[in-house]
Design goal:
Blueprint (H helix, E strand, L loop, with lengths): L1 E3 L6 E3 L2 H9 L9 H9 L8 E4 L6 E4 L9 E2 L1 H4 L19 H9 L4 E2 L13 E4 L5 E7 L5 E7 L5 E7 L8 E4 L2 E4 L8 E4 L8 E4 L8 E4 L2 E2 L2 H11 L4 H17 L2 E2 L8 E9 L2 E10 L2 E10 L1 E2 L2 E6 L3 E2 L2 E4 L4 E5 L8 E4 L8 E4 L8 E4 L2 E2 L2 H17 L21 H4 L4 H6 L10 H4 L28 E2 L6 E2 L3 H10 L8 H9 L8 E4 L6 E4 L8 E2 L2 H8 L1
Parallel strand pairs: 5-6, 7-8, 8-9, 9-10, 10-11, 12-13, 13-14, 14-15, 17-34, 18-19, 19-20, 20-22, 21-23, 22-24, 23-25, 25-26, 26-27, 27-28
Antiparallel strand pairs: 1-2, 3-4, 15-16, 28-29, 30-31, 32-33
Length: about 550
């Protein structure tokens, strides 16, 4: 079945298997293409924009992902989880003279929210979307981590700093899309590597510097085999790394990718019948990006442990039989839900925990048979929810995720701007909000002219603890930032120079190294077979079909 996307006007296909799934979920086929469905969902998720504000319950100062001008109250997390307030007190009757999304938005703008979505975490105040983590700072999408700093989608990792999309890693820095790595730095697309620098697409390698496309190798320098003695002699000649060495290493690696590397259609290991990019240990998953240990699913974007799901984004824990959801975990049979954990049989719910059989609810805990936060009996709930769905079918709301215009975040505040960027004029033309953020130097009491001429020393041996007291100015954007004590400890251990650009600019540099979450049709550079890949046809990288890639790489 082919349809025309209601937003992009592009044609997209709905397979027979998709139609069967939608039938089981009792929803119509989607009106938007996968990309526009993803755009709409992740407009509701703000990772990196943090604000100082007061708790609306206690008056305490806090760090929040919500600006102080938001309509709804914001509570410090410990208070939100406490028993001094009840989300059911905001319950209201459903009005059949008004649309559902209008009524839900009115509810959502009154129910208090957590300052940050940090759950079961310790000392992660300056992180967001932190789950089961400890001692993490500026890690956004922080799942089961410990002692990590400055990262985005860092899962099951320890003692890592300045990384993007890493999984089960330890003592790694400046890595992008690396899995099961140890003491690996400035590397991309590496799996089970250790004690290596500036590597790309290496697997099972150790003590390698400036290498690409290697398998199970040790003591290689710039893709040449060395003796153990010769390797460390070459390494000592350039250690400790200067910022110039690091800059040259990054330049060499990116140049090698374009000129001499070969690429598979997608990156991933231990898969069966999958498509997309960055898919690991998964089976029967298609059009999926950045997923681990998933099965029988489609259109997943940053997911872990999903089974029988469609259109899921930024989910770090197992869920089953869910549709069009964002940031859910340990869930079953959810439709159009956001930030909902340990729950089942929910529809159009947000920030609900340990709930089941609820419709259009916000902020509930341990609840059942609620609609718009109002309690009903089982029979009343079933009768009323059926009537609401019938009305939503008539208004064409049923089967659609929450409207983008109802997101509490401006488009460029939300993570959608990083994955599906739009210009300010494009955003305003869509009647969405744009948030103008003043430079941090204008908001800080430490203005740039007050910072003096302090320069971060080139070598770690010349840096004392007094660096922790310095207010630094980013060489790229001129915003202020500070070096954290854990950051200094890490750089001393690895003997790498401290950064001179702020965490946001470092993150932006890493994001530029990733492909878009889009599949293109192009030819294998070797045999001309048609392949689906995230490398667009007009790019110069040598992309091969899986068969040709494996022949050349092994």
């Amino acid at each position: 079945m082919k349809k025309i996307c209601a937003v992009s006007k592009k044609e997209f296909e709905i397979s027979a298997a998709d139609l069967e799934f939608y039938k089981k979920m009792d929803v119509p086929p989607p009106s938007l293409c996968p990309e526009e469905r993803q755009r709409r969902r992740i407009s509701y998720r703000n990772f990196r924009s943090l604000y100082r504000r007061k708790c609306d319950a206690t008056g305490k100062n806090l760090i929040s992902m919500y600006h102080e001008k938001q309509e709804f109250p914001v509570f410090e997390n410990s208070y939100w989880w406490g028993d001094d307030w009840d989300a059911k007190s905001f319950g209201r009757d459903f009005d059949f003279e008004r649309n559902f999304f209008e009524q839900y938005a009115a509810l959502a703008n009154e129910v208090p929210r957590m300052a940050t979505l940090n759950v079961n975490s310790e000392n992660c105040t300056y992180s967001n979307f932190s789950w089961l983590s400890k001692n993490c700072y500026l890690v956004f999408g922080c799942v089961r981590d410990e002692d990590c700093l400055n990262g985005h989608i860092v899962w099951d990792s320890k003692n890592c700093i300045d990384n993007l999309y890493i999984f089960r890693c330890e003592w790694c820095s400046e890595c992008v899309d690396c899995v099961d790595c140890y003491d690996t730095h400035f590397s991309t697309e590496c799996t089970t590597c250790a004690e290596s620098f500036f590597c790309h697409d290496c697997r099972g390698c150790k003590n390698c510097f400036g290498c690409t496309n290697l398998r199970q190798k040790e003591f290689w320098f710039l893709n040449e085999k060395c003796s153990r003695e010769k390797y460390f002699e070459k390494l000592r000649a350039i250690q400790p790394f200067s910022r110039e060495t690091i800059s040259n290493g990054k330049f060499w690696l990116e140049k090698s990718k374009k000129e001499s590397c070969i690429f598979p259609p997608f990156f991933g290991v231990k898969n069966e019948n999958v498509s997309g990019n960055h898919v690991y240990e998964s089976k029967d998953c298609h059009d999926c990006f950045d997923v681990k240990q998933c099965e029988d699913s489609k259109f997943l974007y940053t997911a872990h442990g999903e089974k029988n799901c469609r259109d899921i984004s930024f989910t770090g824990a197992t869920s089953d039989f869910c549709l069009e959801c964002l940031a859910i975990g340990d869930a079953n049979n959810l439709r159009f839900c956001h930030a909902t954990n340990n729950s089942s049989n929910l529809t159009y719910c947000e920030f609900c925990y340990n709930c089941k059989n609820c419709f259009g609810c916000n902020g509930l805990r341990n609840a059942e048979f609620c609609i718009l936060n109002k309690q009903f009996s089982k029979s009343e709930y079933e009768t009323l929810s059926t009537k609401i769905i019938q009305k939503m079918r008539k208004t064409a709301e049923w089967g659609e995720f929450f409207p983008m215009k109802n997101s509490p975040f401006a488009y460029n505040e939300a993570i959608v701007q990083e994955y599906l960027p739009l210009k300010k004029e494009e955003i305003l033309a869509l009647e969405l909000r744009w948030h103008d953020t003043p430079p941090r130097t204008e908001k800080s009491s430490f203005l740039k002219e007050d910072l003096g001429e302090f320069k971060i020393p080139e070598k770690m041996e010349n840096i004392g603890d007094e660096i922790l007291e310095q207010i630094l100015s980013c060489e790229t954007c001129e915003n202020n930032f500070k070096i954290q004590s854990a950051e200094l400890k890490f750089h001393r251990k690895i003997n790498l120079p401290l950064p001179t650009i702020c965490p946001d600019c470092r993150h932006s540099e890493r994001m530029k190294l990733r492909n878009p979450r889009t599949l293109f049709l192009r030819e294998c550079k070797n045999c001309a077979q048609k392949i689906k890949t995230s490398f667009s046809p007009n790019r110069t990288e040598k992309v091969l079909c899986e068969k040709c890639y494996l022949k050349k790489i092994n």
